[in-house]
Protein: Hydrogenase, Fe-only
Amino acid sequence: MGTMIIDGQHIEFTDEKNILAVIRKVGIELPTFCYHSELSVYGACRMCMVEDKWGSTITSCSTPPKDGMEVWTNTDKLKKHRKMILELLLANHDRDCTTCEKSGRCKLQEIALKVGVKKVRFGQEKKEIPIDDMGPSVIRNPNKCILCGDCVRACQEIQGVGVLDFAYRGSNLQVTTAFNKSLQEVDCVNCGQCRVVCPTGALMIKKDIDRAYKALHDKNKRVIAQIAPAVRVAIGEDFGLQPGEISMGKIVSALRKLGFDQVFDTAVGADLTVIEEAEELMDRIQRKEKLPLFSSCCPAWFKYAEQKHPDLMENVSSCLSPQQMFGAVIKEQYKREKASDEKENVVIAIMPCTAKKYEAARPENTINGERQVDMVITTQELAIMIQENGIVFNELEDEAIDMPFGFTSGAGVIFGVSGGVSEAVLRYYYKERNASTLRGLSYCGVRGMEGVKEASAEIDGRTVRIGIVHGLKNAEKLIRRIKSGEEKFDFIEVMACPGGCIGGAGQPIPQNENVRKLRAKGIYKVDKSLPIKRSDDNPTIDALYNGILNSNRNILHRNGKH
Ligand code: HC1
Ligand code: SF4
Structure:
């Protein structure tokens, strides 16, 4: 605690970790490429330099504030210095901005404009490093990399995966993988968190937009959408709405305008997952075997578990994710109805997640060689399609999802936020249908943005202990405690992205804790507004178990093993 003088103004600081945070507090937005409040401080881009009263320059992101400290943020010396850094970066950068997908959202472009770079005085050294587009989720274009190291730290510090690092020296310095392999050939889990923090077009979502248009324009295809829970509280951000504003009705309307024949809600698939996973957990608890049970709906976590903890795979739920369960149900439904028009059914999932593209392509997610989800379009890809087609999103009238899967429960929707899977499963066990039971469950430790949460609930006279983590680095910490015998749990919910799917890499950018909190609030608001709170109270689910899932429940489980 103390007082600093910024540009002649006296400012009190309390627990701000660095001068940059104090400067931001007074409403001055210093440019930075490498500073992210949720990652470690790197201090490499030097854009956030300030000048002290003796004329020395210091990096504001890596210097803590001190009582009586006096700094200036925009002296002539600093302006010259920032312009020089940008010119050097641009001299070494692929500058095809007009055709770059990141144009308009690129930090390099934005800061160059703000700082007033009108021309680059140095000759361009165009890099021609091969682009890695082999993987299903993320494209890496090293020619657009500005070496800020944000992706390296996100992969290491959020996910503990660490497949990206700096290599080579001097002017050959690059961010790359071990032996320059494709992301697909290393232990990348396709979470896309590297692309969330990338300021330029060096890391991008692998898009399926053209494939989607091709299906939508084919008269012989029935194109069916399923919309993930987290998409509805984030897509509006790309159209100027606040994070957390609920846009489900507008999304449905936009999808119909784009030519989708049927539009459904993935929350129905989540209701099926709740029932299947809750029964699997109770069965294991009664048999006292293969505990704790780990959730399986996050594909980045699933891949991580396969790679790092093969010994734990029998503890991972046999349930397919809601995306895949619902894909299988939709395909089964239309297979039975199809005879009348002979159209080919194409299921497109609209997801907040880049790893869902990988999940949909996994071989065990096919039945007789046919994919159950044919394509995955992220929230951002859908926003691009809406813009490309001139649809004025904010003016769309709300529309409802289609029958025969027209009802969803609040339990299915809260899957979109970390802790939601656990809370939905607990709702299933508690048979009392009153508001105080639901409120009690929401306070048992499942909600909140902490990276590791613990909750417990009494079920049939037994205490069920639940661990909830988001970020694979947090998952790894919990696994170590479990393996060492330090901790005992019955159920562990793992989501790779910060805050759960609301913080997925397919969601609009920028993302930070505040944005995620607002999105989570939106999800809980949807839950509040829905009359059906529990998955097994959803009439759609009842109809499914008495209909196409009757004696066919194995399609909801990995490799048909139920
Ligand atoms: Fe998720 Fe899930 S909640 S994984 O975060 O279990 O992506 O939203 O669709 O499948 O329902 C994502 C979100 C999503 C699945 C569900
Ligand atoms: Fe690392 Fe995830 Fe990026 Fe892969 S997608 S490089 S795991 S941050």
